[in-house]
Amino acid sequence: MKIGMIGLGRMGGNMARRLMRGGHQIVAYDRDADAVAKLVADGAEGAVSLDEARGKLDSPAIWWVMLPAGDITEQTIDAIAGKANDGDIIIDGGNSFYKDDIRRAKKLAEQGLHYVDVGTSGGVWGLERGYCMMIGGDDATLELLDPIFDTLAPGTGDIPRTPNRADGVADKRAEKGYIFAGPPGAGHFVKMVHNGIEYGLMQAYAEGFDVLKGKASDKLPEDQRFELNLTDIAEVWRRGSVISSWLLDLSASALAKDGHLSQFSGHVADSGEGRWTIDAAMEEAVPINVLAASLFARYRSRVDTTFGDKMLSAMRYGFGGHVEIPQ
Amino acid sequence: MKIGMIGLGRMGGNMARRLMRGGHQIVAYDRDADAVAKLVADGAEGAVSLDEARGKLDSPAIWWVMLPAGDITEQTIDAIAGKANDGDIIIDGGNSFYKDDIRRAKKLAEQGLHYVDVGTSGGVWGLERGYCMMIGGDDATLELLDPIFDTLAPGTGDIPRTPNRADGVADKRAEKGYIFAGPPGAGHFVKMVHNGIEYGLMQAYAEGFDVLKGKASDKLPEDQRFELNLTDIAEVWRRGSVISSWLLDLSASALAKDGHLSQFSGHVADSGEGRWTIDAAMEEAVPINVLAASLFARYRSRVDTTFGDKMLSAMRYGFGGHVEIPQ
Amino acid sequence: MKIGMIGLGRMGGNMARRLMRGGHQIVAYDRDADAVAKLVADGAEGAVSLDEARGKLDSPAIWWVMLPAGDITEQTIDAIAGKANDGDIIIDGGNSFYKDDIRRAKKLAEQGLHYVDVGTSGGVWGLERGYCMMIGGDDATLELLDPIFDTLAPGTGDIPRTPNRADGVADKRAEKGYIFAGPPGAGHFVKMVHNGIEYGLMQAYAEGFDVLKGKASDKLPEDQRFELNLTDIAEVWRRGSVISSWLLDLSASALAKDGHLSQFSGHVADSGEGRWTIDAAMEEAVPINVLAASLFARYRSRVDTTFGDKMLSAMRYGFGGHVEIPQ
Amino acid sequence: MKIGMIGLGRMGGNMARRLMRGGHQIVAYDRDADAVAKLVADGAEGAVSLDEARGKLDSPAIWWVMLPAGDITEQTIDAIAGKANDGDIIIDGGNSFYKDDIRRAKKLAEQGLHYVDVGTSGGVWGLERGYCMMIGGDDATLELLDPIFDTLAPGTGDIPRTPNRADGVADKRAEKGYIFAGPPGAGHFVKMVHNGIEYGLMQAYAEGFDVLKGKASDKLPEDQRFELNLTDIAEVWRRGSVISSWLLDLSASALAKDGHLSQFSGHVADSGEGRWTIDAAMEEAVPINVLAASLFARYRSRVDTTFGDKMLSAMRYGFGGHVEIPQ
Fold first, then answer.
1. Angstrom distances, CA of residue D119 to CA of B71, D82, D96, D98
2. What distance in Å separates the CA atoms of residue B194 and residue C237, rounded to the nearest whole number?
3. Which of the four, B147, B194, B286, D319, has the lowest number of CB atoms within 10 Å?
């Protein structure tokens, strides 16, 4: 199929390459002419404007917008919609908030356009491993686009089949690494929760390794201290333990490079998905202590001290005359 | 009554004074001769050794041990027990772990001695406001000591009576500010949970003030920032709001002195009680997310960064090539 | 002053009464004619419509809207604005979301109207104790309305003055129980955080009492069980302890009525403020583990089991063949 | 090598079988004669008593005790020690608390005996996948036992090698699935933290799936509800996503069998390791909000309502006249 790839950053560029390798045609556009030139060198048709891109696409046109979440995505979708013909398809492959998807899909439907949201996991590893995709949209449009997703997805590969998964009943797509999750917004919603879980998993490992590291503390009685080899512990847990995972593989790799992780300051960023997951849970009245605590740990990692901590010190001083402990 | 006060620090000294004002006699002992001298100046009989103190006490002797928790309390109780006569009473007024009380009471009972544990809240304010006491021991001993507790307690004062509290049914002692909580250990257990709650209350205020403070952040859209006067907010909440409390009074006082709390670094200590409360909850399988999070916030306040934070950074770098945000 | 009180429920009716006692005049309107009649009997002028109310008010008219948060408040403010003259003042005394206040104030300002938001704590106790108020609006309007707030507020009463609070420097209003917190929205923002803190305080007590109650559990070794008298414990903590508070007073009263709280099922509701506080903290990147856990505990209280719990059981069965424990 | 396997339950029996397949000899003992008979049928020498077992072992004797944690393990180790010769080795392969290991190792060392603690992950899957082992003991003893661990471990298999792991520098054992973690106790300590992490990972998935499930709730506005296929979501996340893991594999399998998990009540047990991890973190002053919240979620899953919840209801009734919401 012929796809207009709008946005040729690390994600968009590699997706375009994987699609071309899979036999699809790419019309490539980016504000950065160099990015376009590189993709043209790899076999794409280039475009210097959305108008030119439109002219090179089929009808219905398939637009894959792969831009950072936020205003730029919104504006680009608006611009494309302004040039679109009835039946054209706009795919947002970024990290949009799912309520924005719902709103956009309604608005575009009034114009006769189709909107598809694709949440992608796998990050920079996608060109090599394939992209795990969670997709929202109307049924007919998703069916039409199926060959595109099939190419981008990892495929079944050598990951063992899940026991209990019945042939003929279960959707094959999930086993290839993509799902049609539901109507517009459902794709990014599932991806959002994926990231919420990701935060929780990461924090669980982080706390565990913190406890291992802390066991050497000279605050402990001498006969209860252990100097543990975190590098080997991460490695051994990859091998048959209950907590083996891809995040553990990454941890093992980082620790193999430097068991002290000295290059990292530990000021941890968070993106919208973690926060939106908490919001969604609050709308549903679902308790999510772990996912929330994982987000808060990142906030805390980025400040030296909080005003709240000072309040605690002030109260302690007030009722007990306690002075603070030196750090 | 005649009481041997062992340990004349801020707490022990003031308790002795309050007891003397209430008509009791004090035999005062401390390793620090100056502390003894000061109390003698206030009307106590001094002693230069436990032996001398023993000689000046009645039979049964009443010993009130008021020392920092830990080895020194244990050793002092052992030393007193070594000199005690059948029927003597040893009161631990410090912050001992309640399981130590249970153990000690059993051991002393075999010697014919009575053990009483008194958990005290009110800290440095006790001389003026009276001491709120939670007391464990055998019934007969507690009855015998009742006049002592009655003197130390705040009394009913001008605190309004609790609605629904029936005369003649409910124990008057609670309304005077002390309770016989149960057998040995029960006093310190109730005090321990008191401190666990205290941590939670403090952290709730701390987090709320942090959110108020953060509302001025330039990360927020300009039309959604407020520069709030925390000093006045703490004050107004003292006046008819649902969250008025003594801890809020203390907060208001600290903020009235300096709305930025600049003198405090925010490295917050914790004592055994917070941790023991978590332990007790785990033994009972009671979920206590708030009390635990309050304790952990104090741990976190005392370090710049955790190894766990570095783990998060390392994993993010691993799967997304994310570099850390500068602080 | 003359105030149009729109909404004569428990809160609005009592506020109107307190204002009249303080010498103000009330024009009373409610959809429920009986509610109007009752207030007329207490000295108010009645109105059967907003139009009639407008006719009875001075210029600028002062409207106090006291309705449940949500659509009804929005619609009523719109309706009033449609009839308003330049310079009129609309006060929202309900529990609106502060971002709605910011939006409304901007819109009304374009019409030449003034908008004031008042967050109130003290609930059903306000008629007797006075209303603790956190107020947002433009300076001139708040100054104009000052006599109204002064009447509604508790006044300094017999609450001891905060140490360190300097005469002549500090705003007297806070000591009377109300503050001008900032521009429109600031009042409800401060009230919102107040409720967030309230959740945290309540949960801290709840967890502590849970640990006390659980100490009688027959899961514990027999010599480590205590049957504690929760009624007396709540009472004694009111008397000089660090954790005395109004919420503890209420707890003591409830426990004095029934130490088992048998009439309560423990399905705990939450209102918008708790959730909005989490949202605000996330916008500011402030960690609030305690406030969030307090909200989540309420969600959890309202369901028998979560799907998440079943997931845990399923995983345990998967890796260990563990069967669930019977409840 | 020749090993006395004491305790032939699911774990001990299969370990013995794996050892025999690897060329080792087993002297098998269990209180259950049938269990012994089965293992004899598989090639082991049987023993009807510890004495008989001792007689059939070499010198130094190697004892592998594989019993449920607690008193029975302690007693068995004592019994074996009572019959042991200088230089004999006792291995505790169960789930003992690491402080018990430290204590035992000291005591046995005084008798000239060696103590080794082995924490094992992989549960019922070990016979097939091999046992991931974390081992504590003195260096010489661990070296001596290396062939045993090598046989029990999974081996490198087809798990890809960790990038950055340098040949010749890094310990090969970790890549085969076992480590010498440190002195006695270190094995069970690492295994304990492993389980703490496991709780956190499980809870992160559980909460995420809860949010997915809750998105169909009719509490939400109709245009914001999704009926998501949890079975396919779990499957797709196994395929190239950041959150792929063995626990997710198990979840996918359970959901493939029944997307509603109807057979599970969701009353989730916990074993000692989760609690001990919290204890260890508190001793080290390491904040572990996620690991603790994961444990508390299990406690909460096992009760319908908590007394704390009733306290919240009672307070709300007290300050606002709020009645509880029906469930």
1. 34, 24, 8, 10
2. 8
3. B147
How close C208 gets to chain B, by Cα (Å)?
A: 6
Beta carbons of A203 and D200 less than 8 angstroms apart: yes
Q: How far apart are CA D124 and CA D290, in angstroms?
A: 27
Q: Is A198 a catalytic residue?
A: yes
10 Å Cβ neighbour count for A137?
A: 27
Does the distance separating the beta carbons of B278 and D287 come in below 8 Å? no
Mean pLDDT, residues D195-224: 96
Chain A residues closer than 8 Å to D257 by CB:
164
Helix axes D230-237, D186-214, angle to 10 degrees: 130
Counting one residue from chain B and one from chain C, the pairs whose CB atoms sit within 8 A come to: 374
CB contact under 8 A, D267 and C327: yes
Q: List, edge to edge, every strand of the sheet that includes A45-47.
A: A45-47, A25-29, A2-6, A62-65, A89-92, A114-121, A132-136, A178-182
Q: How far apart are CA A202 and CA A208, in angstroms?
A: 10
As a whole number of angstroms, the distance between CA D311 and CA D316 comes to 9
Nearest to A198 by CA among A164, A155, A248: A248
Q: C24 near C148, Cβ under 8 Å?
A: yes
CA distance, residue A242 to nearest chain C CA (Å): 7
User: Which residue is it, tokens 């093992």?
Assistant: A252
pTM of the prediction? 0.96
Of D50, D49, D26, D28, the C-alpha closest to D37 is: D28
Q: Are A1 and A147 in contact (CB under 8 A)?
A: yes
Nearest by CB: B282 against D275, D286, D287: D275
Q: Which of D264, D275, D290, D294 best tests the C interface by mutation, with the highest count of C CBs <10 A?
A: D264
**Selection from D168, D172, D123, D184 nearest residue D146 by Cα:** D172
Interface ipTM: 0.96
User: Which runs of E-coded beta strand occur in chain C?
Assistant: 2-6, 25-29, 45-46, 62-65, 89-92, 114-121, 132-136, 178-182
D292·B297 Cβ contact <8 A: no
Mean pLDDT for A60-83 is 92
Q: Do A299 and C287 touch (CB under 8 A)?
A: yes
pLDDT 10s digits, D52-77? 999 999 999 999 999 986 789 999 99
- Helical packing angle, D186-214 and D98-110, nearest 10°: 170
Q: How far apart are CA A283 and CA A281, in angstroms?
A: 5
Q: Per-residue pLDDT tens for D19-65?
A: 999 999 999 999 999 999 999 999 999 999 999 999 999 999 999 99
Q: Is C191 a catalytic residue?
A: yes
- DSSP alpha helix (H) spans, chain A: 10-21, 33-41, 50-56, 71-83, 98-110, 126-129, 139-152, 172-176, 186-214, 230-237, 246-257, 272-284, 289-301, 307-320
Nearest to A261 among B267, B302, B311 (CB): B311
Q: Which tokens hold the place of A294?
A: 């994982």
**What CA–CA distance (Å, rounded) separates D174 from D153?**
10
Closest-approach residue (CA) in chain B for A309: B266
Which listed residue (C45, C176, C191, C273) is catalytic? C191
AA letter at D68: P
